[in-house]
Amino acid sequence: MIEIKTFDSLTPHQLYGIAALRQEVFIVEQQCLFNDLDHKDQQAIHLLYYLNGNISGVARILYLDKVSIGRIVVAKPYRNQGVAAALINAAMDYCKLSLNAFKIHLFAQAHLVKYYNKFGFTAVGNEFLEDGIPHQEMYYLAKSIAGSSQKS
């Protein structure tokens, strides 16, 4: 089950669960020291994937100057079970249907570029280092959204 929430609608337990999972994977497992709490979560849409009553994966959507999906993370016990794909598809649907976005950005860890290609994302520009990890900017270009004003 996926829940989609604004920051203000997250419960304290959900907010703690998001922060704990991102810290567990990004900072501890990937050994990447960076400021995950970047003051963007307050303006983000948060996606929480639940399995067996536990938050098993999360993602966020930012839609300030451009629409982007990021902080996609799945807890180790739930990997290779379709959690990331479900989060990405739900985030893309939300961007297209609720935000009327026809262009969706993300910054992929370089080893995941082919994975994101499966969802229609295309690499743009050169690979770069972010917090010591190779990344690639990518974007998805949706087909026209009839009858709506579109946001890139």
How would you describe what is shown here?
- This protein has 152 residues and is of the alpha+beta class.
- Helix content is 25%, strand content 34%.
- It is built from three helices and eight strands; from the N terminus they run E-H-E-E-E-H-E-H-E-E-E.
- The strands form two sheets. Strands 1-2-3-4 form a four-stranded antiparallel β-sheet, sandwiched between helices. Strands 5, 6, 7 and 8 form a four-stranded antiparallel β-sheet that branches.
- A hairpin with a 2-residue loop joins strand 2 and strand 3 (54-63).
- The relative contact order is 0.14.
- Residues 146-150 have low confidence and may be disordered.
The count of DSSP E runs of length 2 or more, i.e. the number of strands, is: 8
User: What sequence of helices (H) and strands (E) makes up the elements?
Assistant: EHEEEHEHEEE
| Model regions low in confidence, pLDDT < 50 over at least 5 residues | 146-150
Radius of gyration over all CA atoms, rounded: 15 Å
Determine the strand fraction and express it as a percent band: 25-35%
Strand order of the largest sheet: 1-2-3-4
Instruction: Give the CA-based shape.
Output: globular
- By DSSP (H or I, 4+ residues per run), the number of helices equals 3
Distance between the termini: 28 Å
Helical proportion? 25-40%
How would a textbook summarize the main sheet? 4 strands, antiparallel
Structural class designation: alpha+beta
